[in-house]
Amino acid sequence: MKLYYSPGACSLAAHIALRMTGAEFEIEKVDTQTKTTASGADYTRINPKGYVPALQLRSGDVLTEAPAVLQYIADRNPAAALAPAPATLERARLQEHLNFVSSELHKAFKPFFAGTPIADDARPAAEDVVAKRMIHIEALLADGRAHLVGDTVSVADLYLFVVANWCNFIGIDLGQWPNLAAFVERMAALTAVREAMTAEGLIH
Ligand SMILES: N[C@@H](CCC(=O)N[C@@H](CS)C(=O)NCC(=O)O)C(=O)O
């Protein structure tokens, strides 16, 4: 199994999940600007959509879209308990959170990763969009829960961690959402998170 990733991108969630399962996997870096992999392959032939993550299975099949990739990793490795059982309310909740992170939160960061630094006059409006989504997460975590779903880390936590942690790279103060800031800090301390971030060259 091979995960195509870009350092610190949303693919980091799948990378952490793979490490948490103990499964054998490889990673290959993708330059998402030139659409070339580290070994020189044309990435658009692997994932015609041109973005990461893409998970290439032993069969040769390629799975894309973060929520699908994350749930596949969780379901193929049930001992890691990264997702509630299918067809339960808890599983539907997990999907609810994965979809929220994907279609609402992740997308809110788009103006900050458009290739060129965001213009000063565009920044306040873009930050407002992020804040609107973060407030929802902050309210969820206000009931004292350590995880989005259940009592253990799920793939929704991993995806939320990766996206929320982008604030630390683009100068948005996570401290304005104290529950979320504490969540990010807890997740950042997990061994698999540190290992994946080190492997991607984000921390040393
Ligand atoms: N809908 C996709 C979005 C993936 C995505 O936005 N990936 C970003 C990194 S976080 C990327 O590769 N961007 C480069 C590009 O779009 O060319 C998913 O959920 O996997």
Task: Describe the model.
With 204 residues, the chain is α+β, with helices and mostly antiparallel strands. It has two domains: 2-80 and 192-199, Glutaredoxin; 89-190, Glutathione S-transferase Yfyf (Class Pi), Chain A, domain 2. Helices cover 47% and strands 9% of the residues. The chain has a five-stranded mixed beta sheet with strand order 3-2-1-4-5. The protein is globular, with a radius of gyration of 17 Å. The two termini are 26 Å apart. The model has no long low-confidence stretch (mean pLDDT 97). Glutathione binds next to loops.
What is the CATH topology descriptor of the largest domain? Glutathione S-transferase Yfyf (Class Pi), Chain A, domain 2
Hetero groups in this structure are:
glutathione
* H and E string: EHEEEEHHHHHHH
Name given to the CATH architecture of the largest domain = Up-down Bundle
What's the count of strands? 5
As a whole number of angstroms, the C-alpha radius of gyration is: 17 Å
How many discrete structural domains? 2
- Class per helix and strand makeup: alpha+beta
Q: Biggest sheet: strands, sense, closure?
A: 5 strands, mixed
| Terminal-residue CA separation | 26 Å
Total count of helical runs of at least 4 residues: 8
CATH class of the largest domain: Mainly Alpha
- Largest sheet strand order: 3-2-1-4-5
What fraction strand?
5-15%
Task: Estimate the helix proportion, in percent.
Answer: 40-55%
- Mean pLDDT score: 97
| Tertiary shape | globular
Spans where pLDDT lies below 50 across 5 or more residues:
none
